Amino acid sequence: MSSEIGVVDIAPPEDVERHGRLEPGKMFLVDMNKGRIIEDEEIKSKIVSERPYKEWLDKTRLHLKDVPYNNETCPIETIDIKTRQRLFNYTFEDIQEVITPMAIVGKEALGSMGIDTPLAVLSDRPQLISNYFKQLFAQVTNPPLDGIREEIVTDISLNLGKDRNIFSITDRQCRKLRIQNPVISNADLEKIRNISIEAFKAETIQILYPKAQGLNGLEDALEAIVVQVEKALDRKTNIIILSDRGVNQEFAPIPCLLACSYINHQLNRLRKRSYFDIIIESAEPREPHHFATLFGYGASAVNPYMVNEIIRMQVKEGFITDMDEQKAVDNFNKAIGKGILKVMNKIGISTLHSYRGSQIFEIVGFNSQFVEKYFPYTASRIEGIGLYEIEKEINERYKQAYPDNTIDKNLGLNIGGDYRWRRNGERHLFNPTTVAKLQQAVRLSDQASMMFTQRQ
Predict the structure, then answer these.
(1) How far apart are CA 254 and CA 251, in angstroms?
(2) Distance, CA of 162 to CA of 180 (rounded, Å)
């Protein structure tokens, strides 16, 4: 036997009964009192035979696919999709480089390593809050978890419903609503929203604030949402849907990650967090990182309704072919599930149940007062912006969505420029000017061009 400490000197073959490796999902227990090793099969057999767990699950657990769908329709939006895309900071690049490839092939598009764009806090363009969060990972030489070869021990399914006393092991613990993929479609969300089955009750709470009131309106709205959640819990609600549907010129969306984290921590302080689960109905998330931050700060399911709209439009307009709208949406949800699994594997976590609420991120660019109130217990080593600047960035997006002149109203989405250099897009360290100056400096031994390149 060997470990990081050293190797036990044994004399094979007389002292070796059998040899092998501890396979994924397997365990063994050393009983020091009896002086023997208890095998994987014996450990599991003893545990599963103590109570009729399978009977409890079959009798009391509810699967989302078994919940009846009565063709309930999603809330109707009052403004056109192009305006809403600008409000939520969508770009042409988001649609072409991120959303469409995932809808077609069911996995993330491949990209090169490295990034030469500014940090979110240093960018001149409005940013989603998720972009200020950096994923932490296990800094070890061996891979923390291989989600492909060790797929048997990975799982992204989650269970919704009230959590009960873990020391009271009864069949009531199994009264949960099981979701196989927590990235849910509009139809699945409507199933949950209108569920009328014993032990489950869902309510929708708007995460909007009066735009005219600015920072004060945003702060007051966040506090009001906490009060609404408390009142919903008093009505025996155990599924809270935080929705930013219904945005218009008067009411602006609260960033879904901000609302999710604040509700998660405030209800934890009030000792009521185990009474309910959070579902996010938002237009913001479209990349695996966006979803990872939401799950990391307490969400149990996410419905990216804007992405669903975009994908359905792409199918109708012929940009996505050889499949129907629902298949394309399912492909996107599947791709996000794989992306979340990849993020979890980097830190060595195998199940989304363990990853949910873990906050395994580092913040780069938020001030300490803002972090302490809205994202407590998250590492943030430098200062930066706060709620005031976030509200100003929301206001900048509104200026893009509702421009003053007619020409800007008829223009398409911003080009983006995060994944490659674009004219009038995000700044890049390597751009045509710096490359040309570097070549000029090398070819002509031009000191001025070299200094320009270094300043960039």
Answers:
(1) 9
(2) 18
Q: Domain 62-410: which topology?
A: TIM Barrel (3.20.20)
d(CA 361, CA 130): 10
Q: Which two tokens stand for residue 48?
A: 């599963």
Q: Are 449 and 441 in contact (CB under 8 A)?
A: yes
Whole-angstrom distance, CA of residue 363 vs CA of residue 130: 9
Q: What percent of the chain has pLDDT over 90?
A: 52
Closest CA to 240 of 218, 220, 252, 256: 256
For the record, the structure tokens of 31 come out as 């009983």
Q: Which residue has the higher pLDDT, 222 or 405?
A: 222
Segments making up each domain of the chain, as ranges: 62-410, 429-456
CA distance 237 to 233: 5
Please give the single-letter amino acid code of residue 314: Q
341-352, pLDDT tens digit by residue?
999 988 889 899
Predicted TM-score of the model (pTM):
0.88
- What is the distance of C-alpha 215 from the center of its chain? 26
Q: What is the pLDDT of residue 27?
A: 87
- pLDDT, one tens digit per residue, over 231-274 is 999 999 999 999 999 999 999 999 999 999 999 999 999 999 99
Three-class SS state of 145:
coil
To the nearest 10 degrees (0 to 180), the angle between helices 325-347 and 288-296 is 60
H or E segment and range at residue 260: helix 256-269
Task: Give the tokens for residue 144.
Answer: 């923390």
